[in-house]
């Protein structure tokens, strides 16, 4: 086991250090704090709370320093200036380590689960770091909880034939989503947000924001698919991170399908500990708002991300109070209408997520809500890749496997031809290369 764990840790550190080797020290520091804190919880149960606080301070303190210190300082300076005071805090731009929001949450889940008694701590640091730093999920998830990955690493796993084929399927389709759809939509979206293309009507803005919605979905879910596929090739199973979120008929359903590893993390480690829905309707809404605001802040140190979380919280509260999806779905075509409403809610919130600042976000929101002469000036290529993204989503959702009339041999040949077609699209229809969006978080 030690040889395999050492192999995983060394190569994962090499992978992470290729960007900047100095940040390996940060990863090792927070990881060692959590490893020692978990062991101390087991050996000194009377001091479990202190060890948990140490873990929280190390992880959230590190995350706060690198990700939020400049944001906090600039806002405190602005608040001081509003009351005639000086701007006394230095605002220093610090390079954000890639994946810090992911691996801190992965490591935190370990100490919290040990504190709760849901997981026994491992006594081997190689075992622990093999789970925390495994390269497919290290920089952009899925957020793998130690309770899910440590038991797998404790076994001498070799990939089965089903895992090899399943991994190939995920990797190929992950690259297709990223390189063919996301990377071709990105230039069109960027032109609109950078001012190079000026939308002429509210229809243009809705199309642009919808394109961004599919861009970020195909970009991030594409990475998650590739990570899960690589894990399968190693003999491990990563959690599903996306489950066709744009086919949701309620916003609550959307959050059970979008970035599942993060939304479930906030549910289990923030929403439920706050009381969940157990302490009355008003407290339930308050807990949900706190969770969504923290989720927005997790994505970035800017008011646009916090407002993005607040918009989702507002729509979720309205949905809880009115129960409109259940009422609407009783009518003919009600499910289609509910799907369209949820898509519109999500798209409106995406405008704040993507905007460079609050001024631009409000300008775009006004453009989306200002009804004027409908005119489409978005490029035909953008509409084509948007249709491809939406069509692929519906097709994959309705795929029921091999048809009854198709023999196994025919199915294998058809599958290989399909893989060849998808790989050809990745090679010849790929868009301009772009970094994965969630690397910045």
Question: In words, what does this structure look like?
Answer:
The protein has 441 residues and is mainly alpha-helical. The protein folds into 2 domains: 2-153, no CATH class; 161-428, no CATH class. Helix content is 71%, strand content 0%. The protein has helices at residues 2-17, 23-43, 48-82, 100-116, 125-133, 135-138, 146-153, 161-193, 202-234, 251-257, 260-274, 281-299, 303-322, 324-328, 334-354, 358-369, 380-398, 408-428.
Task: Please tell me what the overall shape is.
Answer: globular
Q: Proportion of β residues?
A: under 5%
Between the first and last Cα atoms, what is the distance in angstroms?
33 Å
The strand count comes to 0
**Total discrete domains:** 2
Rg from C-alpha positions? Answer: 23 Å
How much helix is in the residues? over 70%
Q: Give the integer mean of the pLDDT values.
A: 89
Q: Unreliable runs, pLDDT <50, ≥5 residues?
A: none
Structural class: mainly alpha
Give, in order, the helices and strands.
HHHHHHHHHHHHHHHHHH
Q: What's the total helix number?
A: 18
In this structure, how is the largest beta sheet organized? none
Quickly list its features.
single chain, 441 residues, mainly alpha, 18 helices, globular
Q: What's the structural blueprint in terms of helices and strands?
A:
Blueprint: H1 2-17, H2 23-43, H3 48-82, H4 100-116, H5 125-133, H6 135-138, H7 146-153, H8 161-193, H9 202-234, H10 251-257, H11 260-274, H12 281-299, H13 303-322, H14 324-328, H15 334-354, H16 358-369, H17 380-398, H18 408-428
Helix pairs in contact: 1-5, 2-3, 2-4, 2-5, 3-4, 5-7, 8-9, 8-17, 8-18, 9-15, 9-16, 9-17, 11-12, 12-13, 13-15, 15-16
